């Protein structure tokens, strides 16, 4: 592979790894999968010698697990704190609205407000509505932290391979 192409692929991979981290805060960008693609790009650029097949398979499986958990954890937080289906639906609507009006922090605030409003619509009291909103907020924070940690690990391995590989 030509040197210019190799350098271009390495830069592309680094861009993807960084975009993956940004994607953890913006739900329209699938952060962990994009970060995983960065590992594949670097491996390709280095003639598949950068990372072992086992490493790439493990990271691929972990990428799928993190993506699935990103959907499960907020719902689990909502259920743990007593949210109804209306509250969970409200949190999803609130997340989407929040991301468009106040990115990226609107995701968290929108989910909290949406879950609380959803619970009020479901005729729960103010305290129960706030509790459900808090549960969704905690779940989203845990899911986001998990995604950030995972994409950070991918960036670590990417840079480590560039420096020491």
Can you tell me about this structure?
This protein is mainly α and 165 residues long. It has helices spanning 3-23, 31-45, 53-80, 85-101, 106-121, 126-164. The chain has one domain. Helix content is 82%, strand content 0%. It is elongated and about 65 Å long. The model has no long low-confidence stretch (mean pLDDT 89).
DSSP, total strands: 0
Shape call = elongated
Q: What is the arithmetic mean of pLDDT?
A: 89
> Number of helix segments?
6
Main sheet record: none
Rg over C-alpha atoms, rounded to the nearest angstrom: 19 Å
Measured as a percent range, the helix fraction is over 70%
Low-pLDDT stretches are none
Q: How many domain modules?
A: 1
Structural class: mainly alpha
List the secondary-structure elements in sequence, H or E: HHHHHH
**Approximate strand percentage:** under 5%
User: Span between N and C termini?
Assistant: 17 Å
Task: Summarize the SSE layout with pairings.
Blueprint: H1 3-23, H2 31-45, H3 53-80, H4 85-101, H5 106-121, H6 126-164
In a nutshell, what does this entry contain?
The chain is mostly helical.
Keywords:
mainly alpha; 0% strand; 165 residues; 6 helices
